[in-house]
Amino acid sequence: MIPRLVIFDVDGTLVDSQRQIHTSMTEAFLLRGHVAPELAAVLAIVGLSLPEAVARLAPDLPEAERGDIVAGYKATFNGLRAAGIAPLYPGIAGALQALAARDDLLLGVATGKSRRGLVHLLQAYGIEHLFVTRQVADDHPSKPHPSMVLAALAETGIAPQDAVMIGDTTFDMEMARAAGIAALGVAWGYHPADALLAAGAGDVIASADDLALALDALWGAVA
């Protein structure tokens, strides 16, 4: 049996990190004397690499100033991470365990997080071993560039038709399509369902309890 690869986004898909992200971005902008972006604007850029996210939030600022905001964000976020990790969404832990136990599936991660941040999170929840491939912002261009997905496919030897990206943002859907794999959105994250569908999601999953059913429906549809 040739396994299929299920690649998960992290922020907004596995964990609800909006409080840490918004607080860190607010502090970073205020520290440099700028008006902090609204929550909706911050959630709209979740999933991008940090430099790209700041560039979209403050396109008129000089590159050096944006770099200082990035540094301020990292400092605040690291402090918040030390105080406590972002919570897993309801049902995610059990769903991941069940999917990883299947002989026909391999699990992976493609995230705008740094390697340090991802490892800290996965180890804190004891789920690092569930993912056979972990693609992070340190090694790739920002989503929606397909580099993360292409690297995951190469690392696992899985063909594009046997892989799917699961995420909560349009960047995840666009990345999947650019890499030639299927895409499924999740309804509990930061971008609305209609935007995910417009960006290429084959479906939007209502809850973590529906992940297995959605995958079985997808593979049945493409078999």
Automatic annotation (TrEMBL):
InterPro entries: HAD-like_hydrolase_sf, HAD-like_sf, HAD-SF_hydro_IA, HAD_2, HAD_sf, PGP-like_dom2
Classification via Pfam families: HAD_2
Signal peptide bounds: none
TM regions (residue ranges): none
GO MF terms held by the record: phosphoglycolate phosphatase activity
One Gene Ontology cellular component annotation held by this UniProt entry: cytosol
Domain of life (superkingdom): Bacteria
GO terms under biological process: DNA repair
PANTHER family listed in its UniProt record: HYDROLASE-RELATED (PTHR43434:SF24), PHOSPHOGLYCOLATE PHOSPHATASE (PTHR43434)
NCBIfam families found in the cross-reference section: HAD-SF-IA-v1, HAD-SF-IA-v3
Name of the protein in its database record: Phosphoglycolate phosphatase
Lineage: Bacteria, Pseudomonadati, Pseudomonadota, Alphaproteobacteria, Rhodobacterales
